[in-house]
Amino acid sequence: MENVKLLESSILKRDLTTLRDKNSSSVVFSTALRRIALILAVESGSVLDTVSTVVDTPLEKTDGYKLRTNPVLLPVLRAGLGMLEGFREIYPDSPVGMIGTKRNEATLAAENYYINIPKSADGDIVFLLDPMLATGGTGIHAIETLKKMGFNAIIYFSVISAPEGINNVQKAHPSVKIITCAIDRELNSNGYIMPGLGDAGDRYFST
Ligand code: URA
């Protein structure tokens, strides 16, 4: 799979197991999700450019670096909120948007029920945060919304992805890089990722 990065580490394996465990309480689930998001956020540094600067140490001047731009953080409501804190830890100065997408019962087309995204500026990069890349329908719609607003550099961060969802996103938006922590077996007939972790929003918000 091109343009897909699968992160692997013992810490991720441990925390993914906590997320998958149906006996993990909402507090335990939230803590593990936040930690995984933090790991993804650290990894995201590899896709960002730096610009040179000069820094005064207590002894002399030396070379330093700044990020060329702070990424726009865009959690997809509502489970994406569970990833926001981890990313804000690494990008405290980033603007944060929000997007909520649902399926119109009559037309079955995806539509945004909530959207609050900062205006795009040249060179902006958006980090789309959605823990479960299932069918990809929500992500594809969010990416289309972003492109219409002028954002062209978009990275999709998920915790668990289904092969079907990855294929759908890649087919619709080949330029969007996907960074994920697990690629599970398949989607079931209800659109849940198998083996997955159930409904991420319900588990995070204890609903
Ligand atoms: N969203 C979830 O929260 N879980 C899934 O398995 C699929 C979509």
Tally the beta strands: 14
Q: Strand-residue fraction?
A: 25-35%
Q: Separation of termini?
A: 35 Å
Quickly count the domains.
Answer: 1
Structure characterization notes:
This protein is of the alpha/beta class and 207 residues long. The chain has a single domain (4-50, 64-205), classed as Rossmann fold. It has six helices and 14 strands. Strands 1-11-9-7-4 form a five-stranded parallel beta sheet, sandwiched between helices. Strands 8-10-12 form a three-stranded parallel beta sheet. It has a two-stranded antiparallel ribbon with strand order 2-3. Helix 2 crosses helix 3 (81-90). It is globular and about 60 Å long. It starts with a strand and ends with a helix. It binds uracil. Residues 79, 132, 134, 191-193, 196, 199-201 line the site of uracil.
Could you give the topology of this structure?
Elements lengths: L3 E3 L3 H11 L5 H19 L5 E7 L4 E7 L4 E4 L5 H10 L7 E6 L6 E7 L8 E5 L2 E2 L3 H12 L4 E5 L2 E2 L1 H10 L4 E4 L1 E2 L2 E2 L5 E2 L5 H6 L2
Parallel strand pairs: 1-11, 4-7, 7-9, 8-10, 9-11, 10-12
Antiparallel strand pairs: 2-3, 5-6, 13-14
Helix pairs in contact: 1-2, 2-3
The protein binds uracil.
Uracil binds next to α6.
Question: What tags apply to this protein structure?
Answer:
alpha/beta, Rossmann fold, 207 residues, 33% helix, binds uracil, single chain, five-stranded parallel sheet
Task: Give the gist of this structure.
The protein is α/β, with parallel strands linked by helices.
